Amino acid sequence: MKRATFNNKWLPLFFLLPQLSIIVIFFYWPAWQALRLSFYLEDPFGFGSTFVGFDNYRDIFNNAEYLRIAGFTIVFSVSVTFLSLAIALLFAVKADKVIRGARTYRTLLMWVYAVAPPVAGFIFLVMFSQRWGPITEFLAQFGYDFRVGLDYTDTAIVMITASVWKQIPINFIFFLSGLQSIPRSVMEAARIDNASAQRRFWDVTFPLLAPTGFFLLITNFTYSLFDTFGTIDTVLRGEPASNPMTLVYKVYVDGFRGNDLGGSSAQSVILMVLVLAMTIFQFRLVERRIHYT
Amino acid sequence: MKLLKIAAASVALSLMSGVAQAQTEITWWHAMGGQLGETVNAIAEKFNASQSDYKITPVFKGGYEDTLTAGIAAFRAGEQPNIMQVFDAGSATIIGAKGATVPVQDLLVDNGVDFNIENYISGVRYFYADNDGKMIGMPFNSSSPIMYYNEDALKKAGVEAPKTYEEFEKVTAPALKDAGYVPFAQSHLPWEFVENFFSRHNLPFATNNNGYAGAKGTKILINSKEQKMHWTAVKKWLDQGYFGFYGTSWGDNQSQFEDGNVALWIGSSGSFGGLLKKNLPFKWSATNLPYWEAITKEGYQTFIGGASLFAMSGKPAEENQATAAFFQFLTSPEIQYFWHQQTGYVPITTAAYELAKKDGHYDRFPAAEVGIKQLSLQSGENTRGYRMGFYVQIRDVENREFTRFLNGETDIDSALAAIEKEGNGLLDRFSKTQK
């Protein structure tokens, strides 16, 4: 085979320039700006800025509320990721067995994916409304006074439910195609060995699904951290008050609502580091236990 | 014949383009959605039709926070609009940024428009002014918290709308509760139970002349015995069933009044227009915000909330002239009365108020006059308003702590202490952003 080589050292770099500049301008430059701003306290209009060193970071970690929000973010992300993966897997396993009308069944489940996050939030806000929510009325029959927007736990339940509901379809699609790519011969062999359905699932199906599962684990975790913003915003309607929120929403509240550029930048730097660490952790530790075929 | 038509058309066209060339165009970014936005557009059309030198284009930019953020981004890019609407809690941000705006008073005087701050209603005059009393922002949609009441409910309970919180506690609330109502609710804890509480009782809300004297060293004075007394009472009422709390969102509380569950509701004088259009199934009216007789014998005036208009700097002289002309038009009695009638926001000048009176507006709708009357009550050194930076976040802290307190998760001492601590932290951070 003929190998193409460049005699000039700079020419290949020149060809790479468009791509590199896009990466620099749209990825590294904003990240650098955030890092720089996090060491300043700046007037929003840009008239004055004071270098404050690590003050912004110190203020954040001294703030009990920030730590509380960080705690909620972990609870929120873990529950959203776990629930949406578990429920989607259950649906996929069931759908895999459907013979008649399989296509219709799948389409019905995938529909929800087209719903925009704020709409998802709104749907659940209506269902759980204090004033005329059907679920609220249903719960009231059991003596449960469900108060979204007022009670911390109740509001968290609505946020998690809406976010999980929104994410199930995409997980379902991936799991289903993962299931269908498992060789029939393997399943048959397991059946001949007379393994119970449960053992067949945990010993054969589940490990073979692991690559799909791992991919979904990472995408779902980032989804729960970042893409749930629209849902949370709709549920809170701009009134954080004593309601739960995630770290990303806090960045927005301080930066865009409150015009505290320095504090908000410091928060996004922290978030950036956190997500980076988490991704490295997942790849280093979780991926080792996965076998790609 | 055909030729004539073409000739006429071309003459008309050239005339029109001549007009367009001479016109100075200015833009106005605002946060008035829905019905309010339509009224804003109507005012702009009236202005454009009233003369041929200037043309104003209003642009809806979303909520108050969105509008301010968009304006800031535009200013930093050198693409700011001529006029920007900024709400009460954001006023420290824009007024603190010296050089971002042209003070309206200077703008009007420099462009030959008569200006006398005494022409403005008392509670309106100084909220958007600097420490020396120079008006920086033009008050626009000005409102104040007032107490709406369900007349049918009061009649059924055999009581009148209370003037003081003492009267409410002893007389009104028990009677209303017996009559099957939630006696009392409100829609905005920081605005109605904190900011205007300080004004209504003429108490200092912050050091440095309530923050007007500058951001450096300003401290919030929320952790006071009067605030503690008020909140302790509110919590007691909540537990006794005298007070309903449905969350910090405005509508969740207002709807309880509209549904006829709540008899007394503190809302905005600007809620009047909306309530009127809803044709509520009961008779209702409004009266002044109650006050504590234990603190003051007679209630003081409140100050305005809502938002004001700022003339952004860095614009050519002829555009500033257009802005001045628009402000003159906007504050004319006819336009103020039109705005007042359509929306329920108060007219900002005494002349407009007189016009509304003369026209019989208040004979038809007595509740429409409450806000403006309350803004004209006796004044004191702490009734002009407050100026605190990062106040949007401070409000969030207030909402958070008061909700926790009302939910029984914390006590009032720790709630007020937390607001004081975090509030002062934010004020200190804000002062560092100012040169």
Radius of gyration of chain A from CA coordinates? 24 Å
Content of β-strand of chain B: 5-15%
Uncertain runs of chain A: none
User: Any low-confidence stretches of chain B, pLDDT <50, length ≥5?
Assistant: none
Beta percentage of chain A is: under 5%
Mean pLDDT of chain A: 89
Main sheet overview of chain B: 6 strands, mixed
Round the mean pLDDT of chain B to the nearest integer and report it: 93
Q: What's a concise summary of this model?
A:
The complex is a heterodimer of chains A (293) and B (435). By secondary structure, chain A is mainly alpha-helical.
Explained architecture:
A two-stranded antiparallel ribbon of chain A has the order 1-2. Chain A has helices spanning 10-37, 55-62, 64-97, 102-110, 117-127, 134-140, 152-180, 184-192, 197-227, 229-236, 247-257, 261-286, and strands at 40-42, 49-51. The longest helix of chain A has 34 residues, at 64-97. Chain A contains 12 helices and 2 strands. Chain A is flat and about 75 Å long. In chain A, helix 2 crosses helix 12, helix 3 packs across helix 9 (197-227) and helix 5 crosses helix 7. By secondary structure, chain B is of the alpha/beta class. Chain B has helices at 2-22, 34-50, 64-76, 91-96, 104-110, 122-125, 151-157, 165-178, 189-200, 207-210, 225-240, 250-258, 272-277, 317-330, 333-343, 350-358, 361-364, 370-375, 391-406, 412-433; strands spanning 24-30, 54-60, 83-87, 101-102, 138-143, 145-150, 182-186, 243-244, 262-268, 284-287, 305-312. In chain B, the strands form 2 sheets. In chain B, strands 1, 2, 3, 4, 5 and 11 form a 6-stranded mixed β-sheet that branches. Chain B is globular and about 75 Å long. Helices cover 50% and strands 14% of the residues of chain B. In chain B, helix 2 (34-50) links the parallel strand 1 and strand 2. The model of chain B has no long low-confidence stretch (mean pLDDT 93). Chains A and B meet through helix 11 of A and helix 3, helix 4, helix 19 and helix 20 of B.
